[in-house]
Specification:
Helix content is about 35%, strand content about 35%. It is built from 7 helices and 24 strands. Among the domains are: about 190 residues, Efflux pump adaptor protein, beta barrel domain (Elongation Factor Tu (Ef-tu), domain 3, Beta Barrel); about 90 residues. Helix 5 runs antiparallel to helix 6. The strands form 6 sheets. It has a 6-stranded antiparallel barrel. It has a 4-stranded antiparallel β-sheet with strand order 3-21-20-19. It is of the alpha+beta class.
Length: about 450
Amino acid sequence: MSFDIDRVGVRHARQERRWHHTTVVTAAFVAALGCSGGSPEKGQAANGDAPRKTQPGDTGATSTKGMAGMDMPSPTAAKDDAAAAGAVVTLSAAQIRHGGVAWQPVTMGTSSATVTVPGQIVPNEDRTARLGAPAAGRVVAVRVRPGDRVSQGQVLVTLQSPEAGAAQADLAKAQAELTSRRAQATYTKSARARAERLLALKAIPRQDYERAVADDELAQSSVTQAEAELTRARSSAEQLGAVASASGEIALRSPLAGVVLARPAVPGTVVEAGAPLAIVTDATSLWLTVNAPEALSDALRTGTTLRFSVPAYPGETFTARVDAVGAGLDPGTRTLPVRASVDNRTGRLKPEMLATVAAAGGPDVAAAIVPDGAVQMIKGRTVVFIVTPEPNGGAKFTRRDVEVGSRVGDRDAILRGLAAGDVIVTTGGFAVKAEFDKGSMPKMEM
């Protein structure tokens, strides 16, 4: 019993020592606050640091203390600096010379206001082959799929047709008939020569000689007739594609190099003459079709350059040249059909894409006239580069978004984004764009 009492006394003694220690520490902290005026901010002023005033909307993140009292920039300030750095690049004099960069002040002028109308990308029918069945028959094999690239003369579909078999038989008969007629003509020609010699010797009557001449001329006429029949049979077989096949097979070949747009043919099916089997187009050239409103009928003429965009490449602009304008308005829609040619050697545009076409129309508006090379595309945005020359021969280049209007020749009208007195890059824009692309690349974090 005395052992338990002693153990309780020891615990009470330990608790009293903890309370005493806590009281001493609290008293020391209160005394320190009293020496500094009772305010943390006054304490900072006593140490030589100016008290920080809180502004409306201030989060207190202007700077943070690093090790050894160093001021560290806030995350917000770092982002602002990075954004500013992404909009401006500096090139040295050597870089400017190497990139062929040149600049000049903006020239102000006027440009027609632009009107947007819907359009569509379609295959160039002048470079498109729509292949159908030349005769009724059964599809034996289909050797291509939509999207395949084919060369000129490549076999696309193989058919088996009774008409092709009959055409091949007619061709063989015509060839045999011509061979027979030629042999007969050779005999009659020699018989005529022999009759001439005998008549000169007065060994035969003249009647026999005249009969030999008539037989020879008849044989020559038969040869001419057989040659014509052979030509007809061969032409019929060639139209059916059955020249090289004696079994009635028809090989449908591509008449041009391009890409397969569609392939309705299905192996094993029976098709009638004229049934569509494959469509091949040369996609390096496409058409842009527009149904323009009546108000633009005077502005859209042959040779006019149109600008258009497609949803697949937002912010990017393509060009097309008008090569055909309808003779009259569609009575149902009161629109004018317009067709423009699109250079698609890059292969980025696809048939049946929808497009938004910008056409010049309406009153003239003030615009900055710049060379075509001054306008660049960065991340889908149309920009120009504002130049600030430096004394050492280098220059600072600021990226600025612009709105491009109509185009005349090799010059573009900038409707928004430039003002008189701005100095912009006119040549060598790709070198400046490359520097901006370098600055936008993500940095590796170690």
